[in-house]
């Protein structure tokens, strides 16, 4: 009897979750596992190949290469905007050998899915860096500037689909921020969600009816096509211009309120002692000082925004409130 693909996926996720639970239990019961510098698990709350997976695997490499942690394993727990991974992490109470990659997308997932568990229920470790979104068009687009696009969008928002990542993700929320700042009714926005940057790029370059005229996503999703001249940047959502990218910032374009960035960070399970939290903060601090990590930040055009412990915890609460409000305004919390 053939098993439907959806059922296979569900079984696979359950198996992964079971492995993470087992790892957490073993970490708490084993003398060696209790030492975060001997063995560590990094949870990437998304499928392999995505942004959180990239952060987890680059962190793994940095920790291993410089001998900060002897054995580092990455476990992917995808689904529901990262909230499945968050739910799993919350069950590993007191486990000081596990951390999870998190970021802006998870805050949106928490708001959209009405998650009873939030990042306030974790132990904050560190915010690492910020990744920036770029508005782009195809090389032959009639929109030569951001002002050209905005004028056309204001006139007929329903007739101008804007492409980006998953519904309710950072890209979608940035489009919402821009609509609000430009005085466009959010109910009139036509947002086209795509599974990844590759799929979005293909549709941006397509001449088929109904494909998006404008795309917004992280710089790295568009990097190769921008370098080849197949895409043109209109605006970057960043505090400063990105090196080598001829595009104004949102503030320069007259919209400083469009400021949502895709930050990446690390949290740990609840119930850690102050000593366990301090140890994990120390490990991550050492990691960010390695040559490998510094090269990763430069290569991906990230901006370091290091923040640790209670200050990071305060940031998480405030950012969740801000994003939850935006999700509600966009009608994405239904």
Compact description:
The protein has 334 residues and is of the alpha/beta class. It is 43% helix and 19% strand. The protein has 11 helices and 11 strands.
Please write the string of helix (H) and strand (E) elements: HEHEHEHEEHEHEHEHEEHHEH
Structural domain count: 2
CATH H level of the largest domain: which superfamily?
Bordetella uptake gene, domain 1
How far is the N terminus from the C terminus?
Answer: 38 Å
Protein name: Tricarboxylic transporter
InterPro entries: BUG (IPR005064), Bug_dom1 (IPR042100)
Organism: Mycolicibacterium brumae
Family: Belongs to the UPF0065 (bug) family.
Commentary on this structure:
There is one protein chain. The chain has 334 residues and is an alpha/beta fold. It folds into two domains: 5-131 and 263-329, D-Maltodextrin-Binding Protein, domain 2 (3-Layer(aba) Sandwich), CATH 3.40.190; 133-237, Periplasmic binding protein-like II (D-Maltodextrin-Binding Protein, domain 2, 3-Layer(aba) Sandwich). It is built from eleven helices and eleven strands. The protein is globular, with a radius of gyration of 20 Å. The two termini are 38 Å apart. The relative contact order is 0.17. Residues 5-11 and 16-33 have low confidence and may be disordered.
């Amino acid at each position: 009897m053939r098993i439907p693909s959806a059922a296979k996926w569900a079984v696979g996720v359950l198996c992964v979750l079971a492995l993470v639970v087992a790892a957490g239990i073993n970490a708490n019961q084993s003398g060696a596992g209790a030492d975060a510098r001997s063995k560590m698990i990094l949870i990437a709350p998304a499928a392999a190949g995505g942004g959180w997976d990239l952060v987890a695997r680059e962190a793994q490499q940095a920790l291993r290469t410089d001998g900060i942690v002897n054995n580092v394993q990455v476990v992917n727990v995808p689904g529901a905007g990262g909230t499945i991974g968050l739910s799993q992490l919350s069950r590993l109470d007191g486990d000081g050998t596990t951390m999870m990659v998190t970021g802006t997308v998870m805050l949106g997932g928490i708001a959209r899915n009405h998650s009873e568990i939030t990042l306030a229920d974790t132990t904050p470790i560190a915010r690492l860096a910020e990744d920036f979104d770029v508005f782009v068009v195809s090389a032959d687009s009639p929109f030569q500037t951001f002002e050209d696009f905005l004028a056309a969008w204001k006139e007929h928002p329903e007739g101008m689909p804007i492409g980006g990542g998953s519904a309710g993700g950072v890209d979608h929320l940035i489009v919402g921020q821009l609509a609000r700042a430009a005085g466009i009714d959010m109910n009139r926005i036509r947002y086209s969600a795509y599974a990844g940057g590759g799929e979005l790029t293909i549709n941006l370059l397509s001449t088929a009816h109904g494909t998006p005229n404008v795309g917004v996503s992280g710089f790295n999703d568009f990097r190769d096509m921008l370098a080849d001249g197949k895409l043109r940047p209109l605006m970057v959502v960043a505090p400063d211009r990105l090196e080598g990218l001829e595009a104004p910032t949102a503030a320069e374009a007259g919209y400083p309120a469009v400021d949502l960035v895709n930050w990446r960070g690390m949290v740990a399970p609840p119930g850690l002692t102050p000593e366990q939290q301090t140890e994990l903060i120390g490990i991550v601090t050492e990691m960010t000082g390695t040559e490998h990590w510094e090269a990763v930040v430069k290569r991906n055009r990230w901006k370091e925004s290091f923040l640790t412990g209670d200050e990071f915890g305060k940031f998480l609460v405030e950012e969740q409130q801000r994003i939850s409000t935006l999700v509600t305004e966009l009608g994405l919390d239904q």
